[in-house]
């Protein structure tokens, strides 16, 4: 039963990675998927790439990596789990910033709001990911 649970987990994580990668690459597809559209202020593509692309991709990608690491090595420590949860959130924030940066580059969304948002998202990502990074590099 546990093996089935892990197989389903990994498949769901791959689905999330695929959805995020597609949203990051194609904000119009993401907008259509969630039945939303840009408003008259512009810059909506940045939000679609950041949230429906970067956030989905980052969270699912780090969770997939952690799952595969666990399945390969088999050991789990509570502190590592807590740091891993923070790492997952950190990846989400970092990939949100990536989506916004791509939109600034590809979609002409280089606005003050997006520049400040990228800075904020990267600061939060660094703060959240600190414990995991310290753990990872201390055992690597």
Main attributes of the structure:
0% strand, 140 residues, 5 helices, mainly alpha, flat
Low-confidence stretches: none
Overall residue-averaged pLDDT value: 86
Instruction: Note the main sheet.
Output: none
Provide the helix percentage: over 70%
Shape: flat
- The assigned structural class equals mainly alpha
Write the layout of secondary structure elements.
Elements: H1 2-25, H2 27-33, H3 44-73, H4 78-106, H5 112-139
Description:
The mean pLDDT is 86. This protein is mainly α and 140 residues long. Helix content is 84%, strand content 0%. The chain has one domain. The longest helix has 30 residues. The chain is built from five helices and no strands.
Summarize the structure.
This protein is an all-alpha fold and 140 residues long. It has helices at 2-25, 27-33, 44-73, 78-106, 112-139.
